[in-house]
Amino acid sequence: MNIDKTLSVLKREGCGKGASGRLRSQDMIPGVFYTAEGKNITVQSPALPLEKMYADVGHTTVFNLEIEEEGAKTVYPVLIWQVQRHPYKKSFTHIDFYGVNLEKPVKVDVPLEFTGVSRGVKLGGRLETYRESVRLSSKPLDMPQKVVVDVTDMGINDTISVADLKLPENVSAVYDQNYAIVSVISKNKDDAGAEDAAE
What we know:
By secondary structure, the chain is an alpha+beta fold. The chain has two domains: 6-99, CATH 2.40.240.10; 106-193, RNA Polymerase Alpha Subunit, Chain A, domain 2 (Beta Complex). Helices cover 17% and strands 42% of the residues. The protein contains four helices and 13 strands. The strands form three sheets. It has a six-stranded mixed beta barrel. Strands 10-7-9-12 form a four-stranded mixed beta sheet, with no helix packed on it. Strands 8-13-11 form a three-stranded antiparallel beta sheet, with no helix packed on it. Strand 2 (28-34) and strand 3 form a beta hairpin. The longest helix is centred in the N-terminal third of the chain and has 11 residues, at 47-57. The radius of gyration is 22 Å and the shape is elongated. It starts with 5 loop residues before the first strand and ends with a helix. The relative contact order is 0.14. The model is unreliable at 189-199 (pLDDT under 50).
């Protein structure tokens, strides 16, 4: 599997709030690249390409980070590790890139996507989800972007646990296999009374 996406950034010299603020005013986002060898490289990324890349890859898909320093460019396979956003503008204010060794497993929180309407809900039960993501371990290029959980066949009092997830080959869950992901439970009397009062 090849890495087909690349984000070009510049090595950043200035640090601190003042320097970071000046970058943001120029639509550049300050960040840190943590190499697979344990080094830290401060970088700056143009805001729009960064936002587009994040929309495509999230935290689960490896891409190439091309760092330019004094005219020389070096490329590293990375994951987006953490993002910080402005509290109300929702724009990026800082980003952390995590360098990976393509031959060594990484652990990543992968989003869960629930599909279908369960039999139990159709019979009057209530679907309760306990997790929005699941931590998985695999080599970086084997990591899925999401895990789809089909709840269609779930009856009342049924539970889907980590062990029931359909994971790609060479991908394993970090959580205990009995860890509950989603259940269909009976509505209690208080719920029923509230529904009666609303009718």
